[in-house]
Amino acid sequence: MLGFNFSKYIAQQKGGSKFDQMMSLFMQLLQYTNGDVAEALDWMNQLDNEHHITDNEYGMGNFIEDLKNKGYIKEDPLTGNFNPTSKTNQTIRKKSLEEIFGKLKKTPNGNHKTTHTGTGDEIGSDSRKFSFGDQLDQIDITASIHNAQVNHGIESFKLTEDDLQINERENKSQTSTVLMIDISHSMILYGEDRITPAKKVAMALAELIKTKYPKDTLDIIVFGNDAWPIDIKDLPYLQVGPFHTNTYAGLELAMDMLRRRKNSNKQIFMITDGKPTCLKEGNGYYKNSFGLDRKIINKTLNMAAQCRRLNISITTFMIASDPYLQQFVKEFTKTNNGRAFYSSLKGLGDYIFEDYERNRKKTLR
Question: Residue 321 in contact with residue 341, Cβ under 8 Å?
């Protein structure tokens, strides 16, 4: 008799071992708890009770023990508290890179080529005759000996200047980038978490530069009422504060950092969701959150113009769609001769990656 035999469906486990699956969740939670391991593990316990992320073979106790043994968390001998390690921070950056720039293709040398040839450090496909001023290490020995044999014969071998063949070398651009991240209170207002995607993009960009473009530099600045630099290791645990938006201070600090860099390619990426609302004046602050304050706007535009005079390009990623904010960004971009993107949170990583790659292909002037 023809028919079908039905049996109980057993779902296949995805994403590797139970530890790997739980680790992925743990890394996400660490970013939301700003590096508080105890709070992240408490959330995991709650999720386990509701959604059964562990089983009879592997429980939360096993997971915590594996985190310690594999070097992802360490215990403070004085307080007994768990803290994330540098291995954890690097893992979070790598996962952010995979999540945001997952289609990125690796290059063997970790640098990006320009379209210009010259005395660079990678041999190109083009060759030419030797000319005065060429370096000895540019000589193509095989091609030069071949030319000598053709020109003078094999019996009386000699190598003259006219026989020498030079390999063109491709210049590789080095880029210095400052990434500015808005940590004003509006980045978590209106029920939308804007700071977490911004952190992920920053971590992905940092890991991209460290792995693919090791000769490039990346500095990271956060700005609220003031602006200050942060280390890459602090990115996963960055918090929004009860701050206004002092864009002027962020640009001033970024410009000061880039002025000290020797690279010709210098750029600022600014991620923000609002307008400038704050300036430092003496020991206090001048603030105005209502509309566009011309005093604040004019000083901010003046800073954009200074960056332009120093050949520092500013790319603004505005994660807000208010028409009057877009008008400010348009004026700001025109003053700097920079670029602007009005991006959703979902597409932020793609925009930043594409613009970073585009800017590396040219010398910013």
Answer: no
Q: For residue range 130-158, list pLDDT tens digits in order.
A: 776 667 777 888 888 888 888 877 777 78
Going by C-beta distance under 8 Å and a sequence separation of 6 or more, which residues neighbour residue 256? none
Identity at 246, one-letter amino acid code: N
B/e letters for 151-160, b = 16+ CB within 10 Å, e = fewer, are eeeeeeeeee
Decide if 300 contacts 247 (C-beta within 8 A).
yes
Whether 350 contacts 102, CB under 8 Å: no
For residues 19 and 63, the answer to whether their CB atoms sit within 8 Å is yes
Task: Look at residue 271 and give its three-state secondary structure.
Answer: strand
pTM across the whole model: 0.65
Instruction: In whole angstroms, give the CA distance from residue 55 to residue 149.
Output: 75
Residues with Cβ within 8 Å of residue 11, at least 6 apart in sequence: none
The pLDDT, as a whole number, for residue 5 is 62
Please report, as a single letter, which amino acid is at residue 323.
P
In the chain, where the domains are located: 18-84, 115-171, 175-360
Q: Does residue 119 surpass a pLDDT of 50?
A: no
Report the distance separating Cα 363 and Cα 365, nearest Å. Answer: 6
* Orientation angle between helical segments 294-309 and 247-259, nearest 10 degrees: 10
The whole-angstrom separation of Cα 183 and Cα 295 is: 22
> What CATH code would you report for 175-360?
3.40.50.410
Q: What pLDDT is stored for residue 230 in this prediction?
A: 94
Question: Looking at the chain, how many residues does it have?
Answer: 365
Query: Is 314:267 a contact under the CB 8 Å cutoff?
Result: yes
pLDDT tens-digit series, residues 298-342: 999 999 999 999 999 998 887 766 777 778 888 998 999 888 877
Chain center to CA of 216: 11
Residues 6+ apart with CB under 8 A from 180: 221, 222, 223, 227, 250, 251, 254, 268, 269, 270, 271, 272
Cα 199 from Cα 84, distance rounded (Å): 17
Residue 12 is given by DSSP the state: P
Q: Residues 39-52: what's their mean pLDDT?
A: 90
